[in-house]
Amino acid sequence: MCTRESPAATSAASTAAARVPITGKHHEVSADDVERVVEAARAINLPQDREIIHVLPQSFVVDDGDGVREPIGMSGVRLEVEVHIVTGAVTSIQNVIRSVNRAGLTVQDVVLEPLASAEAVLYDDEKELGVVVIDIGGGTTDVALLRNGAVWHTGVLPLGGDHISNDIAIGLRTPTADAEDIKKRYGCALTALVPAEETVDVPAVGGRKPRQLSRQSYPRSSSRAWRRSSRWWRASWRARASRTRRRPASS
Question: Which of 81, 137, 164, 250 is spaced 20 to 30 A from 156 at the CA atom?
Fold first, then answer.
């Protein structure tokens, strides 16, 4: 089976590049050349408590020809690659594998959760044209950006459905279990879509009688967590966009 490793504190992603000489017959790119250049891109400095989960090629360059997706069979002197590297905390990965093994199952591989979600729900033409997969879980929201058939960005936001339920519980002063039920039954992303006259019966705490509140007050109670999420995500995206990519060293 395949486990999915995604906690925001344990996974991270970066872009790397590498360059190798083409050693195939008649300077024709072979599968060995592709394997060597991808392996060279793995040579990044990592703390001892982290390990590489994925090295995902984005595009190849054969001499001066960039944007190559399938370099095998092309002629040239130099082969370059840009890759998307995903790393994870060693202890977190080991804990997941150990838990699965104790359940009597065997782990074949560990996969970052948004990549597993993308593999499960996307068609090939969507991956080609460009798509963003957003998987909202209980504790995290996982994001993957794919285009031209490759993964170009992954991210994990430390925010999920449980945080929304907690905000509703606090905002409406109702038990968490009832807040979860209200979220599922009456949740709406835009207040404008909720009729002004519609109401919701909200259970109270401490054995008090339920209260009847306007449904339009519910989105305001549940939106604080997502405002925090959007601010965090915009800051993360700007930081990533401004980061200078490491260029491959001369061969």
Answer: 81
